[in-house]
Amino acid sequence: MQSPNWSTVTESELWEYIAWHLSANGVDSVLVGGAVVSVYSDGIYKSGDLDIVYTSYNSSIGEDYQIIPDVKRVSGKMIKILSPTDCIKDRLASYIYFNARECLEQAILVAKRQSFNLKEIKRWCDSEGGKAKSAFEEFKNLL
């Protein structure tokens, strides 16, 4: 894989480059966190960093441990990223547990630009309980 233009590299291009090289060296990883919002918003949102987890690490969103990332083929290698649905859940988790209003706005940004499973997000919010139920209603009303 060719190096990106470092003076103009986007978070998406940087993730693809790093994930490709990790994969080429036998490291299976998943992009998580705010950089996923950057990828799914085509750069409208800028994270400023990349959060990449090793897939053997038991990654979770709230109490949900059944995260199945999306896969993208880049120059013959398969690289992984949270699905739009799991990205929205991840952002809502930050809103619910850390009162990070900007994360609710990031969830809305992804939801308006990507296909996602609203029923799964409701199921997850219901299972989280507490503030998660009202956060789901707020999320749904802002769509």
Task: Write up what this structure looks like.
- The structure is a single chain.
- The model has no long low-confidence stretch (mean pLDDT 93).
- A hairpin with a 2-residue loop joins strand 3 and strand 4.
- The chain has helices at 11-24, 34-40, 84-98, 101-113, 118-128, 131-142; strands spanning 29-32, 51-54, 70-74, 77-81.
- The protein has 143 residues and is an alpha+beta fold.
- The radius of gyration is 15 Å and the shape is globular.
- It folds into 2 domains: 11-83, no CATH class; 85-142.
- Helix percentage range: 40-55%
Low-confidence stretches: none
Strand content: 5-15%
Radius of gyration: 15 Å
- Overall mean pLDDT score? 93
User: Can you tell me the number of structural domains?
Assistant: 2
Question: What is the tally of beta strands?
Answer: 4
Biggest sheet features: 4 strands, mixed
* Arrangement of strands in the largest sheet: 2-1-4-3
* Order of helical and strand elements: HEHEEEHHHH
* Span between termini: 38 Å
How would the global form be characterised? globular
Return the structural class. Answer: alpha+beta
The number of helices is 6
Task: Provide a quick synopsis of the model.
The protein has about 140 residues and is α+β, with helices and mostly antiparallel strands. The chain has helices at about 10-25, 35-40, 85-100, 100-115, 120-130, 130-140, and strands at about 30, 50-55, 70-75, 75-80. About 35% of the residues are buried.
